[in-house]
Amino acid sequence: MLTVTTSSDTYFDAHPVTLGILVRGDLAATWDLVEEVKQASPDLPVIISCTSSQADSSRKMLHQFSRSMIIQHHAAVSPGEEINEIIERSRSPWTSVCWSDMEVMTDRFLEPPQEDEVICRVPLLEDPSGNLLPRCMIPFGKDETIGFAPLGEGKRTMMPSDYAGIYDTLQFRTIGGYAHRFVQPFWQLADFGSRIW
Length: 197
What we know:
Strand content: 15-25%
Radius of gyration: 17 Å
Structural class: alpha/beta
Largest sheet: 7 strands, mixed
Mean pLDDT: 82
């Protein structure tokens, strides 16, 4: 069960990219990111996903921003399920997804990828000190099991790190998005990457 709230103006205008924000913490901390993004691109559609426990009285701030939406889940769901809901409501060819506690480089993260056949472009991720985090997950075999080794750089990755990325909206829907049957994020990401691969 979920509740969807939209800003007072129309959200469904065409735009090349929609930004999806997964709330980590509480909703109140999300509005600084929304304001920053809207200053850079006022017409950009923004979809925020949170649970009832994260939602607070700051929900009314949604109406300060044009083309915005909040999806409030009444029960705990996985990040993949939240992304499925965001991308289902996206009307853009590309949907960027990040967490509310991330700082977004708006000039790069809100641009559609130029490459063909990219289902998800994974952004560069840095820790608070500015050190690059591993973002490319490469499968490897050991004995009779398969594991994933994180690399700092690479041409392709098996799955997006921490779900952040710029998703091809239509291709994401075509492969069925993230599987809801996985509870652990690692296995949900691994399943998603395996089906794409």
